[in-house]
Amino acid sequence: MKMKKPILLLACVLAVQISKAQLKSTPFCPAFTVDVLDGSVNKLYPESPYQEIKNKLPCYTNSIDEPSATGCAGVFFKDKGIDFYTYRDYIEISMDFKGKLTLPILGADRGSLFKWLGLPKAKDNGWEAYQMQHGIIVVYFDAIGKVNKMQISSRTPETMRVCE
Does residue 114 lie within any of the structural domains? Predict the structure, then answer.
């Protein structure tokens, strides 16, 4: 009789622990579509709130709450090649982007951008910034003059600050 109580107690503790275990599902994200001319990703804009991005695209790989010590808070999708820097109001799309672009900017030659974006508002050897309806789009070039990264921002080239 004395031995039954500890065994029964142990069985109850194990049953409680097992009942707390839950299956966890992988968050579903819709396909990412970057509307270059609209300046949005799935109708989320560079100035979209941090929590709205997390709610609409729950498959993020990392997030840093605002405000952050570095000022580089945001919602990041490293496995999809896209990051939302919500504190600095820009979206960065890399060559690893897994989604659809409404204009084939990534991988395009520097000389071919005029037909889609017009003349750059500001430029340097490694990048060009184009005025858009929503703000700006900044494109970066590799050593052979092909676009390897782009940033969509609601700010101007003079006020945009990027994270390293």
Answer: yes
Letter string b/e over residues 48-82, b meaning 16 or more CB atoms within 10 A of that residue's CB? bebeebeeebeebeebbeeeeeeebbbbbbeebbb
Q: Is residue 39 part of a domain?
A: yes
Residue 1 lies in a domain: no
pLDDT tens for 22-52 read 556 667 889 999 999 999 999 999 999 999 9
Q: How many domains does the chain have?
A: 1
pLDDT single digits (tens) 49-59:
999 999 999 99
Give strand ranges (E) for the chain: 33-35, 40-41, 62-64, 74-77, 82-85, 90-94, 100-101, 122-123, 127-131, 136-141, 147-153
C-alpha distances in angstroms, 121 versus 70, 132, 135? 28, 10, 11
